[in-house]
Amino acid sequence: MITCVLRYEVDADKLEDFEAYARRWIDLLPRFGGVHHGYFLPHEGANDIALALFSFPSLAAYERYRAVSADDPDCRAAYRFARETRCIRRYDRQFLRPLLAAAGD
């Protein structure tokens, strides 16, 4: 399994727009074989940093998702929404390999 961690720098005045964008992806990602672990929005501390975590069985599965989702009308609409609202200033992604508790631990 591979987990993608997205770190967003968001416009603090447009958090409602960012939340609307995030809700779209929580629903969209499972269509492509991923598991969304949620978005984590600013609460205390920096008011312009948000995180998202989602997993795929492998990096190859993630790459397939990227290729297929690029032509999906709902995904394109989500990207367009973010561009039009300018709720995201920038983002970066990192891939991590989760270490999970063994069954029964």
UniProtKB/TrEMBL annotation:
Domain of life, per lineage: Bacteria
The NIPSNAP domain, residue ranges: 7-99
Protein name: NIPSNAP family protein
Organism of origin: Roseicyclus persicicus
